[in-house]
Amino acid sequence: MYTAFYEAHRGFAMLGCLATVIWALLALIPTLRGQAAPRLWKPTYIAAMATTGLSGVTGLVIVWMGGWLTFVFPWLGLVAVALHGVAGVQGRKALAVAASGKLATALIVQIVTLIAIYGLMTVKPF
């Protein structure tokens, strides 16, 4: 059971990174050009938020099943999921009012957060 949750967690993490990058491209490129974002941004936004959230939930299950509560990386993961969610909401709101600067900042925070935490979780240097 632990192995299944571990693999699901890794899969959701990879999908979350991919969906976040696609959502960022679909939202940011047209906005910077002064055009409206395509309708496809909504499903990719939902996919990015959902897969990242599912990665966090499966990560919590792994933490309790594997006895990882005393380590620091599960808590970093929780912070990353929360930061990704907050930045995602800010990006969605910025997209609604066509605020390209705020949108770019929110998307950069989302992508950097996921890439940094994915790297930390893969290497686990602590």
Summarize the structure in words:
- The longest helix has 31 residues, at 2-32.
- Helices cover 83% and strands 0% of the residues.
- It is elongated.
- The protein has helices at 2-32, 41-66, 73-96, 100-123.
- It is mainly alpha-helical and 126 residues long.
- The protein contains 4 helices and no strands.
- Helix 1 packs antiparallel against helix 2 (41-66) and helix 1 (2-32) runs antiparallel to helix 4.
Shape: elongated
Average predicted confidence as pLDDT: 91
Largest sheet: none
Briefly note the structural class of the backbone. mainly alpha
Count of alpha and pi helical runs: 4
Strand content: under 5%
Low-pLDDT sequence parts: none
Q: Give Rg in angstroms.
A: 15 Å
> What's the SSE pattern?
HHHH
Distance between the termini: 26 Å
Helical percentage: over 70%
Total strands: the figure is: 0
What descriptors fit this protein?
single chain; 126 residues; mainly alpha; 4 helices; elongated
Quick gist of this model?
By secondary structure, this protein is mostly helical. Helix content is 83%, strand content 0%. The mean pLDDT is 91.
What's the SSE blueprint?
Elements: H1 2-32, H2 41-66, H3 73-96, H4 100-123
Helix pairs in contact: 1-2, 1-4, 2-3, 3-4
